[in-house]
Amino acid sequence: xxxxxxxxxxxxxxxxxxxxxxxxxxxxxxxxxxxxxxxxxxxxxxxxxxxxxxxxxxxxxxxxxxxxxxxxxxxxxxxxxxxxxxxxxxxxxxxxxxxxxxxxxxxxxxxxxxxxxxxxxxxxxxxxxxxxxxxxxxxxxxxxxxxxxxxxxxxxxxxxxxxxxxxxxxxxxxxxxxxxxxxxxxxxxxxxxxxxxxxxxxxxxxxxxxxxxxxxxxxxxxxxxxxxxxxxx
Amino acid sequence: xxxxxxxxxxxxxxxxxxxxxxxxxxxxxxxxxxxxxxxxxxxxxxxxxxxxxxxxxxxxxxxxxxxxxxxxxxxxxxxxxxxxxxxxxxxxxxxxxxxxxxxxxxxxxxxxxxxxxxxx
Lengths: 233, 120
Description:
The complex is a heterodimer of chains A (about 230) and B (about 120). Chain A is an all-alpha fold and about 230 residues long.
């Protein structure tokens, strides 16, 4: 089967997911200008970083005039999960030429990863074609939505609490991430410490809370496993 | 106050390069790079910890000021939290997020609840 057919199969499969990122992309543009970034900077974030949750976290910090190192460290921490995706999808791409790998790495997202890996396990499709078919529409729509968000965001009426949209996006991502007692402990500690650290200099509450949450998650994992064993689940 | 232009652009460039390195890591170094078990386990807790650290302070504070008085006893603090528009709207949005696992309905319900509670 030629590569292009599998590309279109990827496009078809990812279409409903693409619709789902539209509001998120609009907010990435609108929140950036709302926080005081220029339109060009908002689009620069979407093109150069191209990772929604980390973009919104960076926008929030830049709006609060946080130091450079805290902003960059936060982007890295928020995007660390993609290290797992990279490790898990790498065997599928081992036959792909290096010049394509660069493009394929750049457009790696939660959605393209999940959709492609599920399909790779179910049926035999051209790896490069299908993967790019899922990843490229997400990239194109993300950029368009950012630009629309920049234009519209400057005209959002004052009574609409746009600043509340940011935590709501993170909330929609957080709830499915709580999938066990130890991830719940990680979230509880991360959220509590970050809140207690709101007054800290350099916006350090966020990275400190996140690191403490990961440590507590790791520490409680054996306890949670033990508890499951006792109840026989 | 927003960060200076140079800081914003440097953050975008460094953040972009680091993110590309994370995405490409294993794709480029397949077979030559092994993730230690502890690191892999730690990565599993990153989403929950980071997202909670982003959500909870943003719901409980506005421009660095807590939505409820600090220094209250646990009962009084709990009661004050339950009376806060942002907390109630956030809780409702969390329920929607749980059932739909979708960004759009979560935003719509959360924003609508905040507006409605503010109008009461």
